[in-house]
Amino acid sequence: MYEAVLTAGQIALRDEARAFVRDEVPRELLLDMDAEKIYYPLQYVQKLAHQNLLGLRFPKEWGGRGLDWSHEVLVLEEIGVLGASLACLYSLPSIIGEALNVFGTPQQKEKYLKPVLAGKMTVAEALTEPRGGSDFFGATARAVREGDAFILNGQKRFIVGAQGADLFLVYARTDAEAPSHKAISTLIVERSDGLEVQHVYGLMGTRGGGTGRIYFRDVRVPAENLIGKENGALDVFNQMMIPERMTSAAGALGLARAALEIAARYADRRKAFGQKIREFEGVNFKIAESLTRLDAARALVHETARIIDKVGNSGYVRRRVSESKKFATETAWAVVNDAMQIMGGIGYTNVYPVERLLRDARLMMIWTGTNEIMNMVIQHEYYKELLGTPTSARDVEADAANAEVDGEKVYE
Ligand SMILES: Cc1cc2nc3c(=O)[nH]c(=O)nc-3n(C[C@H](O)[C@H](O)[C@H](O)COP(=O)(O)OP(=O)(O)OC[C@H]3O[C@@H](n4cnc5c(N)ncnc54)[C@H](O)[C@@H]3O)c2cc1C
Prior knowledge:
It contains eleven helices and ten strands.
């Protein structure tokens, strides 16, 4: 029981979130979202706010609980059992709240962070553009300064909450000449006339979260809605990628856990060849494999949470966060896929929710930075550590019999 390493406060919070997920989220909501009868579950977000479950890490002054990542990941795992859409809507105040909490002025926190955590305003993150999401610094949306405002033009796509959100955190180019990493700014944009949303996608899963395409046409954004420094999006982006990726990582644990439990219970009841299928090695080894992967992913996510709580942000934190996102989402995919296999044909039908969880799990390896981009960050930060810091560890390379033979260690 991993409870053994949790504090009483963490267990209480985990149980609070578990009770919310069990009692406050009707199955009709999940079904209607999946059937796209609902485009944005406002009441769900408001209920979370009412329970003071949004933005747990932010100071009480703004409506949070002043907790840390070690707490938030526990709640995220519980919310994750609801699937990717509701987990994402839960996470958005944590992601956008991070930008406001770390870089926002007291006025911005009062005007935006407080009402977001109170469920009076809803938020979306507008980062990805039609020309690409991975190459964030290639952003082409433009915000041109005109007196005390920016005039915003451009497009964003795949934005969860495009339908339904009151506020958008938008990254836009504010310097046409400077190199990209010094040319982009972060703005809070309120829904207004020049902002048009189109619901254009049929999604494989993760439905009902208002995902859409946004067009900004001469949208006037007050200069006071600039988050951080003008052309300073690099810092905001690096900070926001912590919650962006940690929420995916921790949410994936819950989704995988839910699918595994369904499959394990099924295997204990379903019979073939006169015995329970869980008695076949081909089945029970899948359960063992899934459980081991899931525990390993949880351990990685929890340790990363503790590291962020101690260190804040750094290259090492970026590596660990990326590892957590990659490993937890790949684990979720493998676990849900095996859960479906264990259940045979019925797992592929909507008699069990495993097929919906599978459709959701697939996205998790793509969004909040693809897992290829996670690999890019992981190896990049590792090389900075490896080559940038002298080591106090044993020189193992010298432990070969012919380690000192000249002329054999050829590199070019
Ligand atoms: C349902 C859904 C919801 C989403 N929600 C949001 C949201 O709320 N807000 C938001 O801003 N975005 C959102 N996204 C966008 C998502 O984050 C992007 O789709 C993702 O970052 C990838 O960007 P892309 O689709 O443009 O793919 P591309 O960037 O075009 O990448 C295509 C492929 O090339 C690979 N690739 C690209 N560059 C490299 C590289 N350097 N090395 C190796 N491989 C590389 C990628 O890994 C990928 O496999 C959402 C997407 C979906 C589908």
